[in-house]
Protein 1
Amino acid sequence: MSQPGIPASGGASTGLQAQNGAASASGSPYTNGPVQNALLSSQVSVSQGYNSQLTGSYPHLIPAKTLNPVSGQSNSGSSQTVSPLSNYQRHGQALYGPPVASHPVTPSLHSGPSPQMPLPTSQNPAATPMPSGSFLPGASVPSPSNWQYNYLSQTNHCPRASSQPTMTGNTNLMSPQYVSSGDTSLQNNVVKSGIISNTNNGSMVVHNSYDEIEGGGFLATSQPTNKNPTTSRSVGYSYPSLPPGYQNTTPPSSTGTGIPPSSLNYASGPQAFTQTPLGANHLTASMSGLSLHPEGLRVINLLQERNMLPSTPLQPPVPNLHEDIQKLNCNPELFRCTLTSIPQTQALLNKAKLPLGLLLHPFKDLVQLPVVTSSTIVRCRSCRTYINPFVSFLDQRRWKCNLCYRVNDVPEEFMYNPLTRVYGEPHRRPEVQNATIEFMAPSEYMLRPPQPPVYLFVFDVSHNAVETGYLNSVCQSLLDNLDLLPGNTRTKIGFITFDSTIHFYSLQEGLSQPQMLIVSDIEDVFIPMPENLLVNLNESKELVQDLLKTLPQMFTKTLETQSALGPALQAAFKLMSPTGGRMSVFQTQLPTLGVGALKPREEPNQRSSAKEIHLTPSTDFYKKLALDCSGQQVAVDLFLLSGQYSDLASLGCISRYSAGSVYYYPSYHHQHNPVQVQKLQKELQRYLTRKIGFEAVMRIRCTKGLSIHTFHGNFFVRSTDLLSLPNVNPDAGYAVQMSVEESLTDTQLVSFQSALLYTSSKGERRIRVHTLCLPVVSTLNEVFLGADVQAISGLLANMAVDRSVTASLSDARDALVNAVIDSLSAYRSSTLSNQQPGLMVPFSLRLFPLFVLALLKQKSFQTGTNARLDERIFAMCQVKNQPLVYLMLTTHPNLYRVDNLSDEGAISINDRTIPQPPILQLSVEKLSRDGAFLMDAGSVLMLWVGRNCGQNFLSQVLGVENYALIPQTMTDLPELDTPESARTIAFISWLREQRPFYPILYVIRDESPMKANFLQNMVEDRTESALSYYEFLLHIQQQVNK
Ligand SMILES: [Zn+2]
């Protein structure tokens, strides 16, 4: 590679001037070609089945396997895009069909208020003749008294009347739609039945299955009927998969597939729809002239001020809110927005050319989490928003929803504050004091008794698998953590192994030893003795332990090289279907037998090319099976331990759509690759013992006028905007894109609320709610000032993964570059009065070019390297599934000098002193041969030791006499009885503790092969195929100043 060497100690710097000078000889990799206008397909939306009127009763238990077909817009895809649900009109039609036969009570058709309303995110006035000013659904309620919350109302239950399985696939309205697959054969998998409750006012409430019981959209009034319910919105309403910024209007060069900018205009834009005046709002009233920190107002010329990277971790911007509001706001680690000042209109957002979206880490482990146990969970009657700190109390008895502005009554029970034991101060209740809160859900949030924790392990035991020796590690780890598996007395466990056949293990209580049952018919897999294969862990613990002890030895002599992964997954799915749960699959090679068999597709010669690489699945088998799993509340986690190409692009679908996770240990071998063994052990421990939520759904609501349209993460989108998460884990992140559907001119604040309904491992139904509040602004400058560059970069990365898959890698790379060019051009032309030379950026975006350059060099999107295809796919999986903080670390690692650690500025945690060295720019310019530098790249830590590193560090930290004695492969630091050793180890341990995965530490000498990896992460330097930061800035400037 042309990477310059490390500058000699004290010698002339070979830094940016030398190496990063003039535009590169290797040619610009940034072709800024026209970006395809990948308008996402717009779906005709169908009615929601949210049936949210809570009645204090326990619904009928129904099989959990079905899903209301009318709720059916079921989008799947790595990012799952929906057009916001728009027509209010079809509600009722779809949902109130004849009752199913077993129904004890004939549901009457809806009278009065309809429980079906679109989501708050989906107002579509164009398609919705609404009474003027009547967004508040209450406006057309004939009798308000019908709408008093009455949890104690008499309730009759009846099986649902609405979802007739026979309707599926018949019409647009009724059939679930799959954005990606379009495969009608999938539809049956998402057909669910539900329950209708007949409330005392005669209106029917349909409790559909889990996907809807969270309470969905508007529980509102009957709406005017649309004569043409099938046309919800024109395609023009759909949002491009990449923000306007991507739609480069003036393609600087080549490829010529651009679409005229005019076609990119949003059909939506500001809407004529007027919302009811807000009236008094104690929050907005308290807004006053606030100003940012003066630093935040600076305009920076990046070509002059090149070192913009702060020496301490970059903090998210603080929304420009009154401190009384801000102090109640959601922690940005859990919930943040790309723009902390929300543009008032889509037109303004379009001008800014920045993506608008949310990044969530909803199930993050929290030290403090207020949990409310109350029979009354107070929610907006219209939009089902949970009461939160940003609602306003009109008086003691009424509160106004901050999402739809409906005025709601304060229930009697809510008047009493359990914390202060005072009556009459509802605004002091914990629900109104905490932006993050968890509710114990009463029975109406369940469709069946909470499922038991069920864990099924599926092991590859082919010759290849046995060779890697992984079974030893995994079984040992399971033995060690068996008592720590989250669960209770109901916990169930089971095991399947497979090679060319499938092996089941009967662990029935009373057996003297586990009994192996072999099924060799992989064409039509059946489950022998289903009742004894998933067993109660407590009752059969000894048998389970026996099995785990003997399993690694059972196949040591195997000669079976084939892998029937697909049939094994089918068997596992059948076994788990009645309960749901977590399936952990360990695979070491390309599946070769039966359904789901795959062929090698990787062409090593094309690894470095941005074109023609196989990022898409070669079969839809894994996706379809994942959707089956999702329907039965089964999540599949894939552990891929393979030295060879295993087509992760195809295999990964099994986890992506079932809300599982993918773990990848390339070249795992128990002897040859001890660091992978260590990594697997550590990560398994976390995996087996971390918190888990079962049969979960998540919905994100936002203030009326905003619309959520594209989701990123591992899940399956049911019913337009409900994320189906058979499992939820504390290490998963999600992102969504938004647009401004209606002008927000009448409001100063908007809110976003995520609600995650899940079953805990203790069998409790719980709801975790996060609410974020942000100001609305009317000028472009304010939008820029509030930009959150990390969130923007994270969202762009998610969008770029989609673009890579749907178009091409080079397209995605162009789009990333264009995002910078377009937003900075917009800034330059609109908010800078005099056109200064240089590359002028707002302070908030000072790191934008750097982070985008880092993304271009990230494993997901890089070119010119020999990145294996599976490694690239895995990196893309990580982009989609990791919380932002880890994604940023993987993209732009932190570099520290560590040979001179001191206690200055150190932090203290539990009597441990943790040094906090400054973060350095990622350039060899910052290295010196007489030092040692630690690079924290998220999943890997690299400690580069310079040739002239001080003797003190060598002996006191590394425990070696001289440089030459540093082992070629060193992946651990000795614990020496020296302060230097203690500091270094404390720092590294602390870094590791910050994350759920286990970063391997590599100590790197100058001659180490790993040095190339270290230098690869030097984002600011030029590599063979990528520009240096300085070159990149020049390129951006050139485009911006055109
Ligand atoms: Zn509301």
Protein 2
Amino acid sequence: MRIEQPAEMTHAAMLGLGVHRPERVVTNDEICEVLDSTDEWIQTRSGIRTRRFAGEDETLIGMSVSAARKALAAAGVDAAQLGCVIVATSTHPEHTPASAPQVANALGSTAAAFDVSAGCAGFCHALNLASAMVRSGAEQHVLVVGVEQLSRFMDPTDRGTAFIFADGAGAVVVGAADEDGIGPAAWGSDGSQAHVITQTPSCLGGHASGEGADHPVVQMEGTAVFRWAPFAMAEVAHEALKRAGVAIDDLDAFIPHQANLRITQTLARNIQLPESVAVATDVVDSGNTSAASVPLAMEAMLRKGEASVGDTALLIAFGAGLSYAGQVVTLPPLG
Ligand SMILES: CC(C)(COP(=O)(O)OP(=O)(O)OC[C@H]1O[C@@H](n2cnc3c(N)ncnc32)[C@H](O)[C@@H]1OP(=O)(O)O)[C@@H](O)C(=O)NCCC(=O)NCCS
């Protein structure tokens, strides 16, 4: 028996981008009301000046839907046209059911829908899946959402995490295009460092340390991340450029995961990024929003005029797992 498959490969690109930034802006001084730290220390070590925390009425699903609606509008695509919805997140409160079917339902879609758990690298993983689906002809339009509500999963007294992580959502619609707008991913993992970023306790129980930790909170060996990311990701950056056949001088923008401004700056140096390439610095205003950080940083660059629709950008994301993924993309229109 012969199994049929779509015969033609097509080109895939991001057709539209939308974000949801929570209303509430949280300053370092507010963080330091509970955390034993200072505004100056936080800015010097991480670059972060403010971040946003979701309010009572801003749920993970709600933020995803808000970002997705803007992405669909920018793409000129109706929710009914979606063939798949992928949500990258580490902070959906339940393992089951996944968040993506609820996001699809709220949008009025019955598309295939599932979550991706790849920590801060989740959005770039999901983008690679969506691109492959569209290029193969398996689906016409795929919605990719990166969303986090890390403020719910932090110990506000933990000096290693409380000032870093934050909330938000970003979404893109991936669909067929005249030219490829999403390059092949350079991706991989290093599970030997699984212990470096964890949720503690696991779902099997136990007790987390720290105030108010009656449910899992993120814990991180920050120095280990710092020793790894700016060096390992430099190789991934060059691999993504090579796979896409794009020279580093041809980049308009560099949009790495917004982990920490010092990691971004060290990584840019290690890549030997030309001065002409604009570098995303959304971490300064938004903190580290994990799987949401790359689409939020894309939006910030487009909104501020630091990059333009149609520009060529290198995305690199890395985090818990440890997992990483990077690809060269063409920047999409903003909703
Ligand atoms: C978390 C991070 C900012 C800590 O910075 P660091 O330079 O490694 O700091 P260290 O943990 O070595 O601590 C240095 C000093 O600051 C102190 N310190 C640590 N956290 C502090 C805080 N929040 N406020 C004030 N002082 C702090 C330490 O006690 C130590 O003091 P000492 O020198 O007197 O012993 C840094 O490791 C980092 O950004 N790592 C990457 C994290 C990240 O971005 N992860 C994203 C995951 S995707």
